[in-house]
Request: fold
Amino acid sequence: MSTAPEPRDPKNALVFDDPLSQQSADDTDRGWGERPHGDAAADLKRFLDEKPPHHL
Reply:
């Protein structure tokens, strides 16, 4: 019977790095809700879907 510990899964390991030294999605231009360039019909559909009810 072996008493050696089982190897751990590296993706489950805790990381104690400084989180402020890493770039987050909010630090990029893409992190503020920009969508990839699409067609005008998709833009109009999104506008109409997301328009508040008091702007009808």
The chain has a mean pLDDT of 75. The helical segments are 40-50. The CA atoms of residues 8 and 42 lie 46 Å apart. Residues 40-50 form the longest helix (11 residues).
